[in-house]
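Quick one:
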Amino acid sequence: MKAGDTLELELDALTPGGEASGTLEGRTISVPGAFASEQVSARLTHVSRQQPRAHAELRAILRPHPGRRPSPCTHHDDGLPARTPRCTGCPLLELEVADQRALKRDLLARQYDLHVDAVIAAPAEFGYRAASKRVVGGSTGQLVLGSYVRGSHTLAAMHACRVDHPEIVLAAEELRRIADWLKIEPYDETSRSGDLRYAWFKTDGSSVLLTLVTASADSRAASELPAHLRRPVGVAWSVHAGADNNLRGAAPTLLRGTNLHTTLAGVTRELGPLGFLQPNPAVAALAYADLVRDHAGHELRGALALDLYAGAGVTTELLRPHFAEVHACEAYPESAAALGLAPETAEHFLARQQRRPDLVIANPPREGLGPQVCAELLRLAAPRLQLMSCGPAALARDLKALASGYRLTALRAYDTLPHTPHLELVAWLEST
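Output:
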């Protein structure tokens, strides 16, 4: 088995990256663009010398998945002109959504030993994304707003992206049109020259907040675009002069207009340029509502609840009517300031707690709680611990670290990003 070989392969699994995989001659072979249960013809592009793994490119589908469908997006279509980069942001797009959820549920069980009770469907498979970061490329007068093809720095267009909220689509098209008219120069990462690097759009469902990220403080994009853009209620500006691909840039300045006021699960919060916004608020609201109840949907009550990684404070507010005291912690400065808190890590926050809480909820970043936080949670021994996770590998590690003091009573998944392998998870734990 070597690179260049063409082979027929039975595929049986979804990978965390959204590819399909199958096993041949003791090697796991990943094939982008294919789905589990398909038989394909594929050409090997790389065979690992250190691991029993290989990668291949799809040549033909010999037996399709029964849920396979024509691509609903022109940027994902096989019919694109030659040498036009194909967007890889939605690797499951050509599969019916119910079949996507089945493959994702199987991935959780097979890859992470996480067995969910249910996968909660998204109300809409398109137009759901409320936050979208775009890489700016192309040429002066013909800008491209898009994303990098997975595993490369090749830019694929995302004009009129199907999963973006319609307000973001309109704001992105306006930005591209006005920037072309003004002859704004896109940043070129090879020569490290140019002006506009990234654009970050957020919407509350009716208004858009736009953050322009430029390569230097001497920027025509920052000085000229805000006066001509009508769709964003606010335009912010950040400078990123480094060679890395941090899409945020430095602390932003609001050039004109206002921040957003977003409502999630009935809680309204002001949202600034760096404030966290759930990409699919409709599904996130369902998960947040479940996170603060028991797994049967009953309200929880008590004297003290702790809210770790509180973010915008939505869950903090949902808990307040039912607990005499709710203490929150948040490490990110902008979010902590909005809550009237000093930024503090969960480790430090928990280490200074002496009272046993009735409930602890936590919504950590993708890397999970980690051993320090788990150790502090075991010390406090709250009778109920409820976790929301966007990283299944980290959740699996955290559950093992907590197993000496807690048992998992329920685990539910939420299809927050249809057409991708991602699921949000809520885990209910009780002390043993």
